[in-house]
Design goal:
By secondary structure, this protein is an alpha/beta fold. It is built from 25 helices and 14 strands. Strands 9-11-12-6-13-14 form a six-stranded mixed beta sheet, sandwiched between helices. Strands 5-4-7-8 form a four-stranded antiparallel beta sheet, covered by helices on one side.
């Protein structure tokens, strides 16, 4: 299928970027011949620091991973250069081997950091702690290395490349331009939108089947390689390496530069790193302590007055002057296309979902006990019961293998075991939360594109203006008017539109089993009616198995194939719509009359047993 041409604002943005890139390259090529030798020497170092700052800007500003460990990765590359050249001498093989070795060690350190920091249930702030420890461990290893690493004195006087100052300036400046341009292309692409989605709402990304820990680890590894390569060049140019290159202070300075430049951009941190380091070098001789105080004061003022940093303001100014008042390329250019549906999982004979003996306890508190339930394709099962009955807890146990205390959950013939949510989703499970769980910072079009990640690989270099949705998701988008809001940021949608968008995103994954937690909460009567019609159609025409939590029995009566009543963590009734809605037990549960509940006896006993479980099944 032919790719649609990008809209005019997008083309203007690319043209402006090309002009700025050519201007930067011209400055890099001609700069060393116009500046004095001292200024050129300082700027070479500043350019290399800028490369590290840009890598951190993508990591922190777009993916939300605050790392203090970029200094350690930088120093790994620097020490790889210093050690190799000092011990083995300078040759092409040694030079390439040292660069490759530094990048490999940095990759291993970044992977280990990601494995520790991005595991299941780990707080997002944990990565900051782990990377902070990484800088401390690195410095201590250098100190403990003795003569091999130079201990606290570092390594100096080793042979290095015989490049002129002009050549080093062009190498370092060209590297900064290249890294900034590549990162700009990345964050503008569909993959860049995925990074923003992870930063904004990692939980929703996991329930779209995205392994967020793996994505963040891969991004951390990429940033570590950039930092290590910059450190290698730094050591080769300066002919000296020292432990403080990998210390906490330099790592914090990088964070400050990114914050000042604006962590929502890549150009801002690059400029901030170069300007601050260059100015600091000029003034540190005459104002060594006052200058650090000034930088700290500016940092505090920017954080208080401009929390997003200086870069976003600069980008907005350029956009107004050269591109237009607002670049809405992804909204105005995006259009919907019906995608072919992938083959359904399973043989068609087994149940869509089977829950056997599921229990959930928190210490001595038993929230769910011995829940057994089967659902077939083309069946809409409503889970009803008073607040505290365990309905949402049951949904969590179905969609996250680590939530259960006991029991089994089988989706299309495959037991989920202890699988995390993203792996459960890949088995054919889709979950919609009670409150709209969406990406406020993305547009409707971008959100729908992210939802298709399981079936369509996101580009790292461009944005696809064609959004391919299965018919079920397309029906929701068109019926609720979202088709006319593709360029609207989700934060500006009404509550009902956000509910519809989340449902469309879940359906875009083409699930076999759909879990809905009060999808009509907060909706108006017409909106509830519309959602009800859509759900009935999804079950009847698309063959989904839907489990829905709902409190409105009238709404449940209109859409359900079956109703399951939960009370105090147990299934009390499982039967046809009219049978359950008209049941005295249901009225008793909702009105909370203990004496009436005592009259009917415990669930599954006496003559009530046949009414509750007409097929002879039982949760026991």
């Amino acid at each position: 299928m032919r790719q649609a041409a990008p809209p005019a604002p997008h083309r203007r943005a690319e043209a402006v970027t090309a002009v700025l890139t050519l201007a930067a390259l011209a400055g890099v090529i001609g700069g060393p011949y116009l500046l004095d030798i001292y200024t050129v020497s300082i700027l070479i170092r500043s350019f290399l620091f800028g490369c590290v700052a840009v890598s951190l800007a993508v990591l922190w500003g777009y993916a939300g991973v605050l790392s203090f460990g970029q200094s350690a990765f930088f120093a790994i590359g620097a020490y790889a250069c210093g050690l190799a050249f000092d011990r083995l001498g300078l040759s092409p093989a040694v030079a390439l081997g040292a660069l490759a070795g530094g990048c490999l060690v940095a990759t291993a350190a970044a992977w280990l950091t990601g494995w520790l920091a991005f595991g299941y249930g780990v707080s997002p702030f944990y990565v900051s702690v782990v990377t902070l420890v990484l800088t401390i461990v690195f410095v201590q290893l250098i100190y403990a290395g003795g003569d091999l690493t130079g201990s606290s004195s570092g390594i100096s006087g080793f042979p290095t490349f015989d490049f002129s100052m002009e050549a080093w300036f062009q190498i370092a400046g060209g590297a900064l331009v290249a890294v900034t341009l590549l990162c700009w292309v990345l964050v503008r692409s569909d993959t860049g939108r995925l990074l923003v989605a992870i930063r904004e709402n990692e939980q929703r990304c996991k329930y779209l089947g995205i392994a967020t820990g793996g994505v963040k680890t891969l991004l951390l590894v990429g940033s570590a390689v950039v930092a290590a390569a910059a450190g290698y060049a730094y050591a080769a140019f300066n002919n000296v390496v020292a432990p403080d290159l990998g210390g906490f202070q330099f790592g914090t300075e990088l964070v400050i530069w990114v914050a000042l430049g604006g962590r929502g951009t890549v150009l801002g941190p690059a400029l901030a790193a170069v300007l601050i380091d260059f100015t600091s070098a000029l003034l540190s001789g005459s104002l060594p302590f006052v200058w650090q105080l000034l930088v700290g004061a500016v940092f505090v003022l920017v954080i208080l007055l401009m929390p997003e940093g200086l870069g976003p303001g600069l980008v907005a100014l350029v956009r107004r002057l050269l591109i237009g008042r607002r670049d809405r390329a992804t909204g105005r250019g995006a259009h919907l296309v019906t995608a072919p549906v992938h083959e359904a999982r399973g043989t068609g004979h087994e149940a869509a979902i089977e829950i056997v003996g599921v229990a959930r306890s928190y210490g001595s508190l038993h929230v769910l006990e011995d829940i057994t339930l089967r659902g077939q394709r083309g069946e809409l099962i409503s889970l009803v019961g008073p607040n505290g009955a365990g309905k949402t807890t049951l949904i969590r146990c179905i969609s996250d293998g680590r939530e259960r205390t006991a029991g089994r959950v089988v989706i299309r013939g495959t037991e989920i075991g202890r699988m995390p949510p993203e792996r459960c989703v890949r088995l054919g499970l889709g979950r919609k939360f009670q409150a709209p769980n969406v990406f406020d910072a993305l547009t409707v079009a971008e959100s729908l594109r992210i939802a298709r990640t399981r079936h369509e690989r996101l580009s790292r270099w461009r944005r696809d203006h064609e959004i391919r949705l299965p018919e079920a998701a397309m029906q929701v988008v068109r019926a609720t008017g979202l088709e006319r809001e593709l360029g609207t940021e989700v934060r500006h949608l009404s509550h009902g539109s956000k509910q519809a968008l989340e449902l469309a995103m879940v359906l875009a994954m083409e699930p076999d089993v759909l879990l809905l937690d009060e999808p009509t909460a907060g909706l108006t009567k017409p909106e509830r009616t519309l959602i009800g019609r859509i759900l009935v159609d999804l079950v009847g025409n698309h063959g989904l198995c839907v489990l829905i939590i709902e409190h409105d029995l009238e709404f449940v009566r209109e859409i359900s194939s079956r109703i399951v009543v939960l009370h105090q963590g147990r299934i009390m009734l499982d039967g046809g719509v009219e049978e359950v809605v008209s049941s005295e037990l249901v009225r008793t549960i909702y009105t909370g009359e203990p004496q009436a509940l005592g009259e009917v006896g415990p669930p599954g006993t006496e003559d009530r047993r046949h009414r509750a479980f007409p097929n002879g099944s039982s949760p026991s």
